[in-house]
Write a structure and sequence with these properties.
It is built from ten helices and eight strands. Strands 1-2-3-4-5-6-7-8 form an eight-stranded parallel β-barrel, surrounded by five helices.
Length: 298
């Protein structure tokens, strides 16, 4: 395991480190000045929590941290969205994020993002596409501030015609700014797009595939895990990032898709050992699951 960095995703199960959000319905009760004050105070607290998170990762031999996509709550909301310079605490926020970037670089803590499932670049709807692009631009802005190198998304829906959807996905990625494309990755999912579906897009665009082995086990495409791993590795121009989780009710259940609290060590692919990779641990118990996995493999 010495070449494998384990990644913690977004939040903590037991540690008193929390990231706050704000709901639009609540914020819209206030005038603009109060809206910005409340949002600013939330982000300032989140910036402190992010520094606490990377500090925890360093202290517990966790090599990567996925930052919550709602770190800047309502950033792209059509009615209450804002620019960072509008926030009363923006100088303190930027200073804290600069500290995060410096600390992460100093201690080799990788920072990544994974926008939610509503970020759809394969959509046939122009309004959904525009909102998705705005969301990705926000993530790119945040990634620049903290030095994150991955903004990972799924392929989206098939919309009744997967070849056409994949063509839209490819065309829409090509239209994105270079800064964003340089960080963008695609991930296979457990219902629509397998590694075999996405690898040609990744190869054509020169963007990496984040191989999720749990998803692949739920939605097989004829590729072995070994072959999917090797083909995914070939798409990366930096340290590869993979995802690992275990099924909540076991592989023999009617629905193995939901994630378990912990990781069954047997679910860790043997072909990953000895490789220099990041493996995000997508387990409900968060840092507790990582600690248990570390103990098992020690």
């Amino acid at each position: 395991m010495k070449n494998i960095r384990l990644g913690l995703c977004c939040m903590f199960r037991k540690q008193p480190i929390r990231f706050r959000i704000k709901q639009a319905a609540y914020i819209m009760k206030f005038d603009r000045e109060e809206q910005l004050e409340k949002i600013s105070a939330t982000i300032l607290e989140n910036s402190r929590s992010l520094f606490a998170s990377v500090t925890y990762c360093r202290q517990h031999n966790i090599g990567s941290f996925r930052v919550n996509s709602r770190f800047f709550p309502l950033k792209t909301h059509p009615e209450v969205g804002y620019g960072l310079e509008e926030l009363p605490d923006h100088e303190d926020i930027l200073a804290n994020l600069g500290r995060v970037q410096m600390y992460a670089e100093q201690h080799d803590i990788r920072l990544t993002f994974h926008p939610d499932q509503f970020t759809l670049l394969s959509t046939p709807k122009s309004d959904v596409l525009q909102r998705s692009i705005e969301e990705l631009l926000y993530h790119d802005e945040m990634a620049e501030l903290i030095g994150a190198d991955v903004i990972n998304i799924h392929g989206g829906g098939g919309y009744g015609d997967k070849p056409a959807a994949l063509a839209r996905l490819q065309a829409n990625i090509q239209s994105l700014p270079e800064s964003l494309r340089s960080r963008l990755t695609l991930e296979n999912d457990d219902r629509t797009y397998s590694p075999k579906d996405l690898l040609p897009v990744c190869t054509a665009l020169g963007i990496p595939l984040v191989y999720d082995v749990h998803h692949h086990r739920c939605y097989s495409d004829g590729l072995s895990e070994e072959r999917a791993t090797e083909m995914s590795l070939q798409t990366w121009n930096r340290e590869p990032l993979f995802h690992l989780s275990s099924p909540k009710q076991g592989w023999q259940s009617d629905n193995p898709r939901p994630h378990s609290n912990m990781i069954d060590p047997d679910d860790f692919p043997q072909c990953w050992f000895g490789k220099t990779i990041t493996v995000d641990i997508e387990a409900k118990a968060k840092e507790l699951a990582i600690a248990e996995l570390q103990a098992v493999f020690k």
